[in-house]
Every structure is written in C-alpha cells, then in structure tokens.
Amino acid sequence: MNLKAHQVADIVSGNVEGDDQISIDHLSKIEDGQKGSLSFLGNPKYNKHLYTSNSSIVLVKDDYVLESPVSKTLIRVKDPNESFSKLLSLFGDNVSVKNGIHKTSNIHESVKVDNGVYFGPFSVCDKNSVIGKNVKIHSQVYIGENVKINDNTVIYPGVKIYNNSSIGKNCIIHSGTVIGSDGFGFNVDENGNQKKVIHNGNVVIEDNVEIGSNSSIDKATLGSTKISKGVKIDNLVQIAHNVTIGSNTVIAAQVGIAGSTSIGSNCMIGGQVGISGHLKIGDRVMIQAKSGVLRSFESDVSIMGYPAIKYRDYNKSYVHFKNLPEIIKKLDKFFKKNNDE
Fold first, then answer.
1. Is residue 325 part of a domain?
2. Range of the domain at 165
3. For the chain, is the Cβ count within 10 Å smaller at the N or the C terminus?
4. Domain total for the chain?
5. Is 241 an active-site residue?
C-alpha cells in the first residue's frame, strides 16, 4: 500500500504540516524509522526520536510543540496512538479474508452456518451450534454442542470452546484459549476425599471482546460466567466460574480471578494480579501489577500491594518499609545507649 500525506491525513482526520505529497509504503517505530515509512509519537519518552528518525511522516499530537525544526512531514492528530492503530489495520496482514470450509474440517449436519464463514483445516464443530456471518474459524479449533458464535468474530488456531458457550459479534480469540471448561470446585466428603462439583452453567462473551492466547474462562456452576462488551484480556489469564467482568475493562497478562467475583466496568488490572473469590470490585478501579486483592473495593479507586490497599496509602507505607533497616539500626543504638546508662 502506498499513501500520500494528505491521504493519510484524511484517514486519521489530521492536519498536514509539511509536504502533503510525500508518500509512504510501510509503518515503522519512530526510533528506527526509514525513508518511506510512517511513525507516530504517542509517548513523551520518545520525544527525542522525532528529531533523529528518518521516517518520512510522523503522527504527533495536535498541540505538540517542536523543540527544534524538523524536515520530515508531520500530521497533527487528536490521539496519535488511536490514529496509528487505524493505519495498522490498513497495513496489517489481514488473515480473516478467507472463506469456505476446508475439506478436513468436521462440521455436524445440524450446525447452522451463515454466509462468509471460514473453517480451517481439522477444525470441529459439534451439533446444534450456530455460526454467524463472516466468522473466521482457523485450523484445529474445537467447538462443542449448542455454541453460538456471532457475526465477524475471529477464532485463531487451537482454541477450544465447550458446550453451550455464547460469543458475541466482532470478537477475537487467540490461539490456545479455552472457553467453558469446568470451574475449580470440590467438596470434601465424610472420608476426607475431594468430590467434584458439577458445573452446569456456561460462558457468555458479549460483543467486541478480545481474549489473548492461552487464557482460560471457566463455565459457571449455575448461570453464566460473563465477559461484557468491549473487555480486553491479555495472554495467560485465568477467569474462574461465575465471574462477571464489566464492559471495557482491560486485564493484563497472568491475572487470576477466583470464583463468583464481580469486576466493574472500565477497570484496569495490571499483570500478575490475583483477585480472591466472592468479591465486588467497583467501576473504574485501577489495580497495580502484582497486587493481591483480598477484599471488595468501591468504584474510582487505585489500589496496590499484597494485601491490596489504596495506592496512596501503599506509597506512604512503602516510604517507611524501605527505610526499616536504617530505622532498626537507630532503634538498636537508642536501646543500647539507654541500657548502658
């Protein structure tokens, strides 16, 4: 693909500053941009690269003030990150254009398949499932009974979707993810043996959800484990039975959420966070990486630590914690002096 600066500006609703006829044919990182490429400046940490990069065009924030003149063409936009994402989708390798059912796939005769669907090699779809328009199911995917996958969803290789799961429109599920496996539930009998709790619920994933690779979402004991619209889940995330996650919440890698916990909307959960079961986390809660959440929290708070407390309280406490060795030395000197006296 080859685009001139004024064409790029039209796509991203930006304003050209410089040569509007200069063209680009690929995208690059600003720190190693080359002639003929387009880069973006979305983080102040990379400001210095704007002046050394060889990129032909750079997207910058509309109010960015230059520290010195640059020869490259700038396109000023409201949000360089969002604008660059639009261009990534244009220049990207769109693996979802395939159509048709591969001869090695196995689809039960009762499955309803809409127009534009693709089934890759060695994929399986069991009875009474429904596959919506333009759904792309890549190789070695297993889809159980009574599963519903709605329009324009992409299922990458090796995904396993158990019986009765429901997946919304425009979702992306990456390789190795398992949806609808049994929850981790056991009861101890009179002999001290662990007896499995049967899980008869399902998983419901709403529209515009993306789930990273090798994640697991367990079905409910009764009812549904629910992932609301717009949720973004990174790789290696475990979501237990009967968990609900509110709309537009973002969850980074290696997070574990125990059973029957409710997460609000527009939350941000950092990597390696552990959240205990039967809790309620409000809307717009920010949980810093590696935190352990052992109690419920109201909306609009930022929390950190193990056990997690409010972010500012944690920082105040850490000031004292990191000084403990010096404080102990002073206390030892104080007590020794008093004892000597």
1. no
2. 98-314
3. C
4. 2
5. yes
